[in-house]
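[step 3/7] fold_predict: job queued, chain A
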Amino acid sequence: MNRILAILFYFCFSIVSFADTTIIVLTSDTGYTGQAWRYTGVGKPLDEPTIQKYWNEDKYITSIAYTSHGWFFAMNQGVKWTNQSYRQSSSWPDSFVQEKKNAGYMITSLASSDTQWVVVMSKNTDMTDQQVCSAPWSNLKDWIKQWWDKNYYITSIACQNGLWTVVMSKTSRYTAQSYMWANTADDIVKKIQEYWDKGYLISSLEYGGGEFFCIMSKTEKSANTGQSRFIKVSEDPTSFIKEGWDKEWNITYIGG
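[step 4/7] structure written:
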């Protein structure tokens, strides 16, 4: 815990614009209870009063993203966290991250639109240290391997204007991890199925810079866990979520 959070920034001179999409991942046997979710609509601000309302009901933000439906978040009871805070800002909130890390918080969700960051930090997680790097992908491959070799795992990703930010955490949550890229939704779905068949689960899935970036992770029980995904630009995800809830599956990831 006394290791200083390393935040390495690189400048990306080739800005890649991309259309927002909406990605929802539903998973069985999450331990979540009383799940609630909300999206705000394109161009509208993050719904902070609703977040505060759910906090008052002991629900915590477990995933958040800027999507083709605007800011979109899920909140749950059933997590072991004891407190939570977030910061929305036009640039990476370095001082907030450092202050909260010093108080025992870790990044548990990360999101960005073209102009805004949202960093969610929670207390009493199973993570004991984190490293953060924001860089073009060519600079990230070796960095990820470096921390994988030290038994860290990717726990959050986000893309803003073609620049990827990756959070790696020291955690006992995962036993193995891999990542994949694809240019289309159909291609990433095929790759996801291959890893589902190997006992992996989607832990992060984002669209940025014209490509899908998916993190697949194994846990001690992932081989016996069900999962489904929704990847659309304009279709409303309400029916998909309801079908999952009817099976007692919950939202475990929101991407965009």
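[step 5/7] annotate
The longest strand covers residues 127-135.
The helical segments are 48-56, 94-102, 137-148, 185-197, 238-246.
exit 0
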